[in-house]
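Re: your question about Diacylglycerol kinase

S., sorry for the slow reply, the queue was backed up all week. Below is exactly what I fed in.
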Amino acid sequence: MDRPDLMTKKRTGHKLKGIPHLLAAASYSIGGARRLLGEAAFRHELIAFAVAMVGFVISSATLFQYVAMVLLFLLMIAFEALNTAIEEIVDRVSPEISDMGRNAKDLGSLACLCLILANSAYAVYVIFISHFLPV
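Result:
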C-alpha cells in the first residue's frame, strides 16, 4: 500500500523528545504490527506459536522453557518484519525483476526459515523429547 504523500513529504528538523517521542515510536511499532498481520506467513507463524503454547501446557513445560520459546518467537517476529521491509524496499526501488532484488528477497526468506526451524526444533524438544531424556 503506497502512500505517495509520505514518499514526497520532506522531513523537518524538529524532533520529538521525551514522552511524545515514546508515544510516536509506539505508534510506528503498532503500524508495523498491523502491516505484518497482512502477511500470510506471519499469520501462520502466530498459529504455530499458539499450537506450541498448547503443547507446552499439555507437556507441563517449565517457566524457563516458556520464556525461551517466547524469546525465540519474538526473534522470529523481528526477522519476519525485517524480511517484509526488505521485500517492500526491493519492490519500491526495483519493480522490474533483477538478480539483486531476487537475492535480497531470498536471503531475507532464508533468515526467516532459519528462525522457523529453530522455533520448531525447540518446541518439538520441549513437547516430546525432553520427557524421555534424563536431566
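The mean pLDDT is 90. The CA atoms of residues 3 and 9 lie 10 Å apart.

Happy to talk it through on Thursday.
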